[in-house]
Amino acid sequence: MEKTGSKIHFLPLFALATVPLIMVLGNSMLIPILPTMQETIGITKNQSSLVITMFSVPAGVIIPLAGFLSDRYSRKVIIVPALLLYGAGGVVAGLAAWLLSSPYWLIMVGRVLQGLGAAGTAPIAMALAGDLWKGASRAKALGLIEASNGLGKVLSPIFGVLLAMLFWYAAFFAFPIICILSAALVYFFVKEPKKTGPKQQVKQYLNTLKGTFKKQYKFLLTAYFAGAVALFTLFGFLFYIAQILEEVHKIDGLMRGFILSGPLLAMATTSYITGTKIKKNYGLMKTLILVGLALITLPLVINAFLKNPYVELSLLVVSGVGTGLMLPCLNTMITSSVKTEERGAIVSLYGSVRFLGVAAGPPIFGALMDTPRLMYLIMAGLSALCFVACWMWIAVKKQDKGGGDPYEKIEWDRKLLAMKKARA
Q1: SS in 3 state form for the chain?
Q2: 3, 181, 166: which is closest to 83 by C-alpha?
Q3: Residue 250 exposed, middle or buried by CB count within 10 Å (0-12, 13-18, 19+)
Q4: One short Pfam family name for this protein (predicted)?
Q5: Cα 21 to Cα 24, 124, 165, 327, 379, distances in angstroms
Q6: Burial 198-219, CB ≥16 within 10 A → b, else e
Q7: What is the pLDDT, as a whole number, of residue 360?
Q8: C-alpha angle with apex 229: 36 to 29, nearest 5 degrees?
Q9: Rounded to an integer, what distance in angstroms lies between the CA atom of residue 112 and that of residue 83?
Q10: Residues with Cβ within 8 Å of residue 228, at least 6 apart in sequence
């Protein structure tokens, strides 16, 4: 792997792309089987939504710690054990469902373990991609990684349904197999750049992060908010649609999986195209973020006044396109906004709020299911607020509109200034 980041090699990128692919399976593969789980083990709709929440909340809480450790030691030292813990949690949940007459509490233990493992996966993989590639190559790599994330969302409902045809808890046993494969790929094929210079002391490191947030807090908090809102809406909407398909339209099995995969396929395809086109154009990235938010907001408003399920699904596909426009742009802007020594923490905080958005979606949408118009209008208002925040506080300087990495430009200016002083 070249340290310049000028060329993307297939195997390292493929290995890193498996990490978010597996991470997203943790929720998306289980959403289609939640109604079956409710009926089989005798739990309520709210209890089944906690299967998603108890995965995402621990991940969201622990991700910042994983980011700090990856900055201080090594990205791979975090990613590989995290994947193995993720798989172990699947074994615990699967054995509970198989052997116990009342398995719910132990399934929750397994989901918490999976969430703790997930904390060291996708956000750290994004940070590592930022270390390995620069400029247009970085944008393309992050776009492909986000597309892999989206592809996981597309395939996982179908895989979940197919596995459930064997026995409803088969998905839990699939996790250790795929996690071991991903860990092996990362271990053998990703060559992490060596860290240069002495390790920062914890106090110094925290002061550096504090300084970064002090300078860029408007941009970072707005970008974090946008990522969380996009995934909160997507996963909440998917949970709502899965319940409606089961309870109202009596659609289950593989057909339900295919229906749920439609919006996710739109998101994955758009993420891939966006990542290959944005290059280093930060002005274009901001525009696509705003367009994406508009495409998320408008379908919510329309759905509030329509009751046609086919229209709902069609508009959800539009929301998927909007999410696919946003996420690669946010990934690139956040990853490029800081230097390598802080990238793990900054990107991990972004991953943390994304996880918390996923965690909040199903229970909140579930609680509002009986008043769908109110549900849609509240979510539309949240997305509209996010649009205004992004328009106001994701600022792009004139010199960055046509391309370039803002942080690298700052570093180069500092080096030139130091050279001039040395000559003087």
Answers
A1: CCCCCCCCCHHHHHHHHHHHHHHHHHHHCCHHHHHHHHHHHCCCHHHHHHHHHHHHHHHHHHHHHHHHHHHHCCHHHHHHHHHHHHHHHHHHHHHHHHHCCCCHHHHHHHHHHHHHHHCCCHHHHHHHHHHHCCHHHHHHHHHHHHHHHHHHHHHHHHHHHHHHCCCCCHHHHHHHHHHHHHHHHHHHHCCCCCCCCCCCCHHHHHHHHHHHHHHHHHHHHHHHHHHHHHHHHHHHHHHHHHHHHHHCCCCCHHHHHHHHHHHHHHHHHHHHHHHHHCCCCHHHHHHHHHHHHHHHHHHHHHHCCCCCHHHHHHHHHHHHHHHHHHHHHHHHHHHHCCCHHHHHHHHHHHHHHHHHHHHHHHHHHHHCCCCHHHHHHHHHHHHHHHHHHHHHHCCCCHHHCCCCCHHHHHHHHHHHHHHHHHHC
A2: 181
A3: exposed
A4: MFS_1
A5: 6, 13, 22, 15, 27
A6: eeeeeeebeebbeebeeebeeb
A7: 80
A8: 25
A9: 14
A10: 353, 354, 356, 357
Question: Token digits for 175?
Answer: 């996790």
pLDDT of residue 410: 42
Asked whether 349 and 63 are in contact (CB, 8 A), the reply is: yes
Calculated CA dihedral for residues 198, 199, 205, 208, nearest 10 degrees: 30
Domain range annotation of the chain: 10-191+199-423
* Amino acid 211: pLDDT: 81
Q: How far is CA 336 from the centre of its chain?
A: 17
What tokens were used for 276? 């290959």
pTM: 0.72
Q: How close are the terminal C-alpha atoms of the chain, in Å?
A: 38
Size of the chain in residues: 424
pLDDT at position 199:
66
Q: Which two three-digit tokens encode residue 28?
A: 């998306």
Spatial neighbors of 244 by CB under 8 A, at least 6 apart, are 309
Assigned token pair, 212: 């970064």
User: What's residue 389's pLDDT?
Assistant: 95
What's the CATH number for 10-191+199-423?
1.20.1250.20
Q: What is the pLDDT of residue 415?
A: 46
